[in-house]
């Protein structure tokens, strides 16, 4: 029996989106996971960037139990979350030309690395320029975005292009323009966003592929264990020691 409560409808919508990305993005997920594994094997470093709520998915793959120790957060001050006051400043910074280039040029990112750029709309100057500049530096770029925005909105970058236009691999989250899954006659605006759920699942699927690919090639994946299980800290210390030159959140 279907649950028609708002909660039930949201779960149905989120599950439907997860099924779509599982089935429709399978090839891209495999390609992205393989790209990251290739980068690790070649001695490259891994970075993830997202602005605003897209940053939540980037943070979700950095320094966490069960995750790859080599994934680093590429942060742009003022855009990493809603902790900046006023919170609207983060949205304004996403539209500033030149900011991404300044951040990349002063970061440890270099040729041979891989960068995941997460932007739901993919239309703002910051993620578009981030992908463009990274590729100019010789960095492989994986974009995570909703491709639908490119068909239904206009770009805010001077080039008129979107994030999807500047990536080696694009992962389409399938999120509808506006990022709200529910409507009710009694509620004036659509509500209940699912982009965080879907984008985080996409990235975890990619990193699961990376770990399995490394193992298939005879390389122990540099995974972290929970510090709340016995032996977790000792395990992580060994990983940090082995890969310390590629882990920047401990410096």
What does this molecule look like?
The structure is a single chain. This protein is of the alpha/beta class and 251 residues long. Helices cover 42% and strands 9% of the residues. It is built from nine helices and five strands. A five-stranded parallel sheet has the order 2-1-3-4-5, sandwiched between helices. Helix 2 crosses helix 8 (195-216), helix 3 packs parallel to helix 8 (195-216) and helix 5 runs parallel beside helix 6. The longest helix has 22 residues, at 195-216. The mean pLDDT is 95.
Keywords summarizing the entry:
9 helices, SIS_GmhA/DiaA_subfam, UPF0309 protein GCM10009549_28640, UPF0309, 5 strands, 251 residues, single chain, alpha/beta, five-stranded parallel beta sheet, SIS_dom_sf
Q: Counting H and I runs of at least 4 residues, what is the number of helices?
A: 9
- Beta percentage is 5-15%
Range of helix content: 40-55%
End-to-end distance = 53 Å
- Mean pLDDT equals 95
- Shape estimate: globular
Strand segment tally: 5
- Give the low-pLDDT segments: none
Radius of gyration: 18 Å
- How does the major sheet shape up? 5 strands, parallel
Instruction: Quickly give the structural class.
Output: alpha/beta
Spatial order of the strands in the main sheet? 2-1-3-4-5
Helix-strand sequence? HHEHEHHEHEHEHH
């Amino acid at each position: 029996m279907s649950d028609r409560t708002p909660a039930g409808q949201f779960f149905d919508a989120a599950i439907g989106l997860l099924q779509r990305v599982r089935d429709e993005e399978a090839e891209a997920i495999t390609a992205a996971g393989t790209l990251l594994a290739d980068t690790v094997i070649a001695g490259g470093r891994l970075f993830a960037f997202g602005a605003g709520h897209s940053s939540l998915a980037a943070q979700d793959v950095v320094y966490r139990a069960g995750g790859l120790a080599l994934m680093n957060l590429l942060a742009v001050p003022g855009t990493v979350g809603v902790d900046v006051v006023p919170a609207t400043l983060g949205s304004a910074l996403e539209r500033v030309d030149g900011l991404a280039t300044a951040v990349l040029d002063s970061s440890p990112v270099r040729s041979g690395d891989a960068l995941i750029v997460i932007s739901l709309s993919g239309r703002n100057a910051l993620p578009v320029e981030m992908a463009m500049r990274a590729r100019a530096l010789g960095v492989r770029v994986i974009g995570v975005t909703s491709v639908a925005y490119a068909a239904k909105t206009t770009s805010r970058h001077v080039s008129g292009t979107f994030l999807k236009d500047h990536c080696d691999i694009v992962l389409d989250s399938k999120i509808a323009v506006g990022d709200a899954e529910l409507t009710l006659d009694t509620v004036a605006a659509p509500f209940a966003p699912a982009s965080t759920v879907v984008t985080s699942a996409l990235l975890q699927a990619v990193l699961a592929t990376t770990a399995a690919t490394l193992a298939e090639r005879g390389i122990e994946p540099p995974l972290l264990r929970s510090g709340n299980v016995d032996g977790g800290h000792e395990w992580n210390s060994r990983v940090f020691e082995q890969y310390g030159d590629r882990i920047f959140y401990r410096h």
